[in-house]
Amino acid sequence: MSIKMNDIDNTKLEEAMQEYLKEQDKERLIRLVYAIQETRLFVPAMEAQKKGGFQPYVIKNAQGDLYMPAFTSIKKFPQNQKYQGMLKIQYKQCVSMLLDHPTLVQGIALNPFSDNLMLKSQMLELSRKVAQDAKDAPKAYSVKTDDFRMVVRYNVEFQKIPEKLFAEKLEFIKSLNEEVLCGLYKEPYIEVGQEKQYPYTKDSFEIMELSIRDDLSIIQVIAPSAYLYQTNCRELYIVWNPLTGQVGYYVVEKALDTENVKFHLAVVREDGSKEKLEEAPSEGNVMNRIMELFGGA
After folding, report:
1. pLDDT at residue 201 greater than cutoff 80
2. Strand ranges inside the chain, DSSP E
3. Is the pTM of this model over 0.70?
4. To the nearest 10°, the Cα dihedral for 94, 96, 99, 100?
């Protein structure tokens, strides 16, 4: 199939999709919902019955349910499949097409010939609510809710901090202190006009830096114990080799309510991927284990 249009960069969405397809838990659902909000998708279309327009194709799954196919990039198009047309439209428009004009179509099939992630109507409603809440944040999106505080901490601890670390590396490490950390956690509250509701101060954070060897240093951050929900971090660890500039980022993450452990030891890599490695060791042994994982003692 020859497509004469520019491709779409949906890397973050595709990563969130892969994580969610591996394990469909609340944490990955949150990431997926936020990753898809401002994206655009390729939607196959055919000439509409009314001349001068196009309407999306529909596909049927094994149970006979109808879905609207959509693709995150050109490389996800099926081989040798021909369509009359291809729309490049915002995800929000896809949601509007299905929710505001009810039909027999049950939802969106993302990359149906490869990933085949089904976004049913309940998921579309959820993503619309998240978008509306963000739009109305100063008035209606209460920062007093557990869900908001949980999501804010998750985004800071698993996205904002590691992104800055891997982008700036030693420059970020040298600038890191309690006041800087407090500011990173505070930014989302400022963005929604709720700065006064921010629950922490710089004294809520504890930082300890250790120079283990010429080629190994580590920073331990004790994160705030207040409003520590599932998927949030009790401790953050930044480890680096001063001789090579290699850096690593590990966390002690509170487990989901459905899991049999209280805390996981997890790693966030430079490509943004996250992995739960094992049950977190006892508090006195966490640092030694992280140095072993990084390639230390």
Report:
1. yes
2. 40-47, 54-56, 59-60, 66-70, 85-90, 105-110, 117-120, 206-213, 216-222, 233-240, 247-254, 263-268, 274-279
3. no
4. -140
